[in-house]
Amino acid sequence: MIIVMKENTPALEIERMVKSLEDRGFQIDKSTGSRKVVLGLVGDTSALDERDFMGHEWVDRVMRVQEPYKRASRAFHPEDTIVDVSGVKVGGKKLVVMAGPCSIETPDQIHGIAKEVKKSGAAILRGGAFKPRTSPYSFQGLGEKGLDLLLSAARDNDLPVVTELMSADKIGTFLEKKIDLIQIGARNMQNFDLLKAVGRLNVPVLLKRGMSATIEEWLMSAEYIMSEGNHNVILCERGIRTFEKATRNTLDLSAIAAVKRMSHLPIIVDPSHATGKRWMVESMAMAAIAAGADGIMCEVHNDPENAWCDGAESITPETFDHMMKKLREIAPIVGREL
Hints:
It is a single chain. The chain is of the alpha/beta class. It has two domains: about 60 residues, Phospho-2-dehydro-3-deoxyheptonate aldolase, domain 1 (Alpha-Beta Plaits, 2-Layer Sandwich), CATH 3.30.70; about 250 residues, TIM Barrel (Alpha-Beta Barrel). The protein has eleven helices and 14 strands. The strands form three sheets. The chain has an eight-stranded parallel sheet. The chain has a four-stranded antiparallel sheet with strand order 2-3-1-4. A two-stranded antiparallel sheet has the order 5-6. Helix 3 packs parallel to helix 4, helix 3 runs parallel beside helix 11 and helix 6 crosses helix 7. About 45% of the residues are buried. It comes from Dialister hominis. Keywords: Transferase. This is 3-deoxy-7-phosphoheptulonate synthase. One of its GO terms (molecular function) is transferase activity. InterPro entries: Aldolase_TIM (IPR013785), Class-I_DAHP_synthase (IPR052899), DAHP1/KDSA (IPR006218), DAHP_snth_FXD (IPR041071), DAHP_syn_2 (IPR006268).
């Protein structure tokens, strides 16, 4: 249930309403918009009668929220959420591009790529230190050594970092090393214990869509994180599994419009993992921005042919620079900037 307060409701009246509801056992999410305040009630509201609230002098309207996700719902939070990643705002007018190698390999590799993507306009450096692979015999990443190399390259280029957390036992390491944005990968989208664990952190979370997940299931996973107190969640569409074999996954651009209608959370697109083919990355990135995405995450490698991981979907720094020029041309057309 949500309670929409009237315009210019005194702060004292809002606090009285919040206190009254909390005394009745409800958790209250307060969303302050440009003109009105919306109070979201979390708990068993089945016994509440909307008419009881309509008699209140400062209540504008009362509505029941049918969606199983509450905190992630746009009904609870009508205004778009902007997530601050160490000074980089994701979800506002300015588009955000996250770029870097699938896997961190050597100091020269990650430092060189970081320098190149920063020069072209990337705002966040991505790189995998712990790699979930389908085969147990594939390269699994450099682990903590990889994190150190990633952070060193990021500091040298004044960039925040995003990297994947695969298990809760590594949370202490991520906090100690001050990772700016924690990525939860597609395979862990419904690892509910891990979601609750990052929900208790004061670190933004990038939540990738599971390879067979519906949009509602994806938002429910975001709800797991938000229910523990961490509302700084960024969604990432990375393609879903279908019968199609021409691409690694099927990029669901319609998810952007659906999420924007259903939720207030920012959403970015990963065209690298979605297509699995480097020649598709630029066009799909352009399509994502045109469809309303808040940013792009893509894989960039200085030598894709010899990459230790996912070289087929990695673009070169030169191609990345060309893509960024194209995105700058598209951004103003959809009311954004890069």
